[in-house]
Amino acid sequence: MNHRKTVWITGASSGLGLHTAMAFRDDGWQVVAGARSFGSHPDAIEGVTCLPLDVTSEDSIRAFCEQAAAVAPPDALVQCAGMLVLGSCEETETEEFRRVMDTNYLGMVRMNRAVLPLMRRNGGGKIVLFSSINGLLGIPFQSAYTASKHAIEGYAECLSMEVKPFGIQVMLVEPGDHRSGSDKYRPHAAAMSSSSPYAAAYESATARIHHDESTGSDPDILGRKIAKTLDRKRIPFRKRIASPDQHAAVWIHRFLGARVNSAILRKYYIK
Ligand SMILES: NC(=O)c1ccc[n+]([C@@H]2O[C@H](COP(=O)([O-])OP(=O)(O)OC[C@H]3O[C@@H](n4cnc5c(N)ncnc54)[C@H](OP(=O)(O)O)[C@@H]3O)[C@@H](O)[C@H]2O)c1
Fold first, then answer.
1. Ligand 1 centroid distance, CA of 170 (Å)
2. CB neighbours of 247 closer than 8 A, spacing ≥ 6?
3. Is the CB of 80 inside a 6 Å radius of any atom of ligand 1?
4. pLDDT tens digit sequence for 76-94
5. Residue 2: its pLDDT value, please?
6. Which positions are annotated as active-site residues?
7. Which residues, 6 or more positions from 198, have their beta carbon under 8 angstroms from its beta carbon?
């Protein structure tokens, strides 16, 4: 009889999702990982069941859940699938906003709708939603991503209250900058060009964003922290995993207000 706990993880082909999947596996969990690219790479992660999953498609989610449930129903669901589009608010197309929202926010909504009945039937479970420091405050030229992460934060508060009576706990993970994310999930908005009225500010801010991510914290440590936290009987509603200056930015935003925070962040990102 299999006594290992099982976690299902979305967006596990790259970045923090991949490192989190490996951390759970190394802690002895049975891991079922989902991502679009697993369709052509089913053996992508040693010791992990890798299944194709597109969180923007109800059909793909249904097929993933059927195959994953045949491995084992989830004790935990960890949702990492995400992307962003860099661009000014003015020049980012509505369709580009929609794509980010559809993946980051509605992707989680769809997955939860599919998995909650299974967890209720099993008498409980843990749901981890990857937000970001950008779920708490905005930075220039990441408005689509910031809006999607703010949506996740509000949604998670509602979800946790509703599912508590069923023994289901919800945790938001709010990472600061971490290494290993792939540039292919950070396209520039199609309209951004050297003739944009925002070109100089955009170049400065995106260079800063790129630098901070490529020199960011260790993704292995984040993965291990999440796996360790999920071993606890009770998990916190928020888990911020960030550098001291990013913790400080959240504190300033909350206690000194968005105006002071904006002045500091504007200076930081736009030279
Ligand atoms: N890296 C950071 O510094 C940082 C900071 C704060 C928050 N986060 C959050 O952490 C999560 C992971 O980001 P990352 O930067 O570490 O990784 P990443 O390298 O950007 O990887 C993104 C992952 O999402 C998957 N994905 C994208 N669209 C998908 C879709 N429609 N259906 C299923 N999977 C999809 C990708 O897999 P496929 O292309 O194979 O589908 C890939 O595995 C995201 O939610 C991100 O917002 C990251």
1. 19
2. 176, 240
3. yes
4. 999 999 999 999 999 999 9
5. 57
6. 13, 131, 145, 149
7. 88, 90, 91, 141, 192
